[in-house]
Design brief:
By secondary structure, the protein is of the alpha/beta class. It is built from 13 helices and 17 strands. Strands 1, 2, 3, 4, 7, 8, 9, 10, 12, 13 and 15 form an eleven-stranded mixed sheet that branches. The chain has a two-stranded antiparallel sheet with strand order 5-6. The protein starts with 7 loop residues before the first strand and ends with a helix. The relative contact order is 0.16.
């Protein structure tokens, strides 16, 4: 499959938008991420909630027509492929695997993909009454037998011609390398298994901390995805803002609100120019549909502001070899975190058009 390699934009993709027995049990019959999206309410004047999908509607990811429409749209605006979040909790336990499995087995859509292991526990943080979190699904690391079973489970994807590769090696992202008790051993084992199948894996570690990059390299990661979003909410922009944020948190149990334009200045860094560092594009963030008033929120994001952020990010990678000129996009469809590129009623295809404009400006 021929790809436009002037910049390789890979969008994180959440396979949550379909009913599952587990979500029925935990949250009520028919629950999907749309449930949180649809019931969200504005928390302050000018707060854009609820966010309503436009062109693709409140879709169900069990439908191949939906998956094809997403891929066609992403391709049209310069996205190379989707990076599907992949949930393997140990002892062979998976969740939300159906959409990707159907993409893999059906051969449709004919659109590149890779996998990101979302190795974190699922907890009920929203409705706990005593302040503690209820464990829904714990992330476990049982050892080699499970690691081998995990490799065998994703091997058909690695062998698929649509799988996104770097210099011929399939990309595999690990969300939280620091959580794996023996990350180096895990990588060494998977590389041995891959070698037996005739290939090498391009392991990519996900982090917000540049100081972790040397450790990741030591463990066997070929590259790092740098996601500087969450650290922005810990920054002290000014004394007044710090006092106000503390007051809002203590008095009203509210998360922090930061101007998107101000936050976006911190989304890139010098590390992004390194060949083995993949920067991240962030269109917006609003966690309140999931966590209520306690959720952190970026305010006043617009396609124009996102376009400027994308231009700056693309300029960080322009001098890299074409094959490694990779930028991750967070995210294609994280609607309940206000973190999506799909069209909504307010901006239409504005963010997608902004992405394409930034690509064309920097890589003309």
């Amino acid at each position: 499959m021929e790809q436009n390699k002037k910049v390789r934009v890979i969008a994180f993709y959440l396979p949550q938008f379909h009913p599952t027995p587990e979500n029925d049990k935990w949250w009520g019959k028919g629950f999907t991420e749309w449930t949180n999206v649809g019931k969200a309410k504005p928390l302050f004047k000018g707060h854009y909630q609820p966010k309503v999908p436009a062109d693709l509607g409140y879709y169900d990811l069990r439908l191949p027509e939906t998956r094809k429409a997403q891929a066609d749209m992403a391709r049209e605006y310069g996205i190379e492929g989707f990076c599907y979040w992949h949930y393997w909790f140990g002892n062979g336990r998976q969740l939300l695997e159906r959409p990707f499995n159907e993409v893999l087995q059906s051969g449709e859509p004919d659109f590149p993909f890779c996998l990101a292991w979302a190795n974190h526990s699922w907890e009920d943080k929203q409705f706990s009454k005593d302040g503690s979190n209820k464990m829904l699904m714990e992330q476990l690391y049982p050892g080699d037998e499970d690691y081998i079973a995990h490799f065998q489970a994703v091997l058909p994807a690695f062998k698929d011609p649509r799988y996104i590769r770097v210099n011929g090696c399939p990309i595999f992202v690990v969300y939280s390398p620091m959580s794996v008790p023996d990350m180096k051993h895990f990588i060494d084992l998977w590389q041995e298994l891959a070698a037996q199948e005739g290939f090498h894996i391009h392991f990519v570690g996900h982090t917000s901390k540049p100081e972790e990059m040397p450790l990741y390299k030591e463990w066997g990661f070929q590259a790092t995805i740098m996601v500087r979003l969450f650290d922005v909410f810990k920054k002290d922009f000014s004394l007044i803002e710090r006092i106000n944020a503390k007051f809002q948190r203590l008095a009203f149990k509210q998360g922090r609100r930061i101007e998107y334009e101000k936050a976006a200045k911190y989304f890139t860094g010098e590390e992004d120019k390194q060949t083995d560092c993949y920067p991240t594009l962030i269109p917006n963030w609003d966690h309140s549909p999931r966590s209520g008033r306690a959720g952190h929120i970026l305010i006043h994001s617009t396609p124009d502001k996102f376009e400027r952020h994308a231009e700056i990010t693309f300029k960080q990678v322009i001098n890299k070899p074409e094959e490694e000129r990779i930028v991750f996009l967070k995210s294609w469809n994280e609607w309940a975190e206000g973190n999506y590129m799909e069209p909504d009623l307010k901006f239409g295809r504005g963010y997608l058009e902004a992405l394409r404009n930034a690509i064309n400006k920097v890589f003309h």
